[in-house]
């Protein structure tokens, strides 16, 4: 299975003056934890790290330390996650029929979840890891007034990995460019193109490290795993 890791962000919500994936938890860069999980997932045979060239010296040093046994390519990221994934798709090996896309910021992903998504994507055109929502969710207007309360039974929090048929995802991304669609995950492009996306059970610990508070949570979870 081919894995694309979007890692080209700037971490605005982290308040960091550098790519948040270079920040350390449990004495290792966030991206290193993500890469270690990918390395330990037996189904992953190739890794593409979508990243800003300004970060490449740091990423190359991390890769040198990790000594991964799988091929790793650095791919130039874009100004949005959507653009970064678009670039990543163009750089996939020609042999890639399916792809997993996993946020570099989701450094607590387990190899088991990567493997289960890699196996499941062989049975469907698109899938995402997701967990049921625990809070009651409100739809709120621009004045902060609640407009509706969706049925919680139908609400899931999307995570990554997200998996796709490569040919279809390339078509959906191209349509997104043509239509000017702006999405925050790749599954949305499938949905907008009318292609079914399957939910795969995610993990409550599969946190996207986004704000400074998330660093402490990631530290705790890694520590609880004895890492
Ligand atoms: N232009 C971008 C923006 C984001 N990402 C990646 O997409 C993942 C999810 O994005 P997010 O958590 O929002 O990261 P940032 O965009 O860096 O955070 P912020 O929105 O706070 O700036 C991250 O691994 C990030 O590196 C990317 O590859 N290219
Ligand atoms: C892809 C994602 O992780 C699914 O929850 C999320 O949409 C990424 O959003 P971000 O704003 O790019 O972090």
UniProtKB/TrEMBL annotation:
Q: Site: Transition state stabilizer. Where? A: 13, 20
InterPro entries from the xrefs? IspD, IspD/TarI, IspD/TarI_cytidylyltransf_bact, ISPD_synthase_CS, Nucleotide-diphossugar_trans
Give a Pfam family name: IspD
Q: Which reaction does it catalyse?
A: 2-C-methyl-D-erythritol 4-phosphate + CTP + H(+) = 4-CDP-2-C-methyl-D-erythritol + diphosphate
Q: Which domain of life is it from?
A: Bacteria
* Pathway field: Isoprenoid biosynthesis; isopentenyl diphosphate biosynthesis via DXP pathway; isopentenyl diphosphate from 1-deoxy-D-xylulose 5-phosphate: step 2/6
Instruction: List the keywords (alphabetical).
Output: Isoprene biosynthesis, Nucleotidyltransferase, Transferase
**Claim: Transferase is one of the keywords in the record:** yes
| Residue stretches in coiled coil | none
The EC number(s) this enzyme carries: 2.7.7.60
- Is Membrane included in the keywords of this UniProt record? no
An individual GO BP term: isopentenyl diphosphate biosynthetic process, methylerythritol 4-phosphate pathway
Its top-level enzyme class, in one word, is transferase
Any one GO MF term held by the record is:
2-C-methyl-D-erythritol 4-phosphate cytidylyltransferase activity
Q: Where is this site: Positions MEP for the nucleophilic attack?
A: 152, 208
Q: Which PROSITE patterns match?
A: ISPD
Query: What is the role of the protein in this entry?
Result: Catalyzes the formation of 4-diphosphocytidyl-2-C-methyl-D-erythritol from CTP and 2-C-methyl-D-erythritol 4-phosphate (MEP).
Tell me which family the UniProt entry assigns to this protein: Belongs to the IspD/TarI cytidylyltransferase family. IspD subfamily.
Q: What is this protein called?
A: 2-C-methyl-D-erythritol 4-phosphate cytidylyltransferase
Which source organism? Amazonocrinis nigriterrae CENA67
Q: What is the lineage of its organism?
A: Bacteria, Bacillati, Cyanobacteriota, Cyanophyceae, Nostocales
Q: Which gene encodes it?
A: ispD
């Amino acid at each position: 299975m081919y894995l694309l890791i979007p890692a080209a962000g700037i971490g605005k919500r982290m308040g960091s003056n550098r790519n948040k994936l270079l920040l350390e938890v449990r004495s290792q860069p966030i991206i290193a934890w993500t890469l270690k999980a990918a390395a330990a997932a037996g189904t992953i045979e190739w890794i593409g790290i979508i990243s800003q060239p300004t970060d490449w010296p740091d990423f190359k040093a991390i890769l040198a330390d990790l000594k991964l046994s799988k091929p790793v390519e650095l791919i130039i990221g874009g100004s949005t996650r959507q653009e970064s994934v678009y670039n990543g798709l163009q750089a996939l090996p020609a042999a890639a029929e399916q792809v997993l896309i996993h946020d570099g910021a989701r450094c607590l992903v387990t190899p088991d979840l990567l493997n289960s998504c890699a196996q499941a994507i062989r049975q469907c055109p698109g899938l995402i890891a997701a967990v049921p929502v625990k809070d009651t969710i409100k739809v709120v207007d621009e004045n902060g007034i609640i407009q509706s309360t969706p049925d919680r039974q139908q609400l899931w929090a999307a995570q990554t990995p997200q998996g796709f048929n490569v040919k279809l995802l390339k078509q959906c991304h191209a349509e997104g460019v043509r239509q000017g669609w702006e999405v925050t995950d790749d599954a949305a492009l499938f949905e907008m193109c009318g292609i079914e996306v399957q939910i795969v059970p995610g993990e409550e610990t599969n946190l996207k490290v986004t704000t400074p508070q998330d660093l402490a949570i990631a530290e705790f979870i890694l520590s609880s795993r004895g890492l």
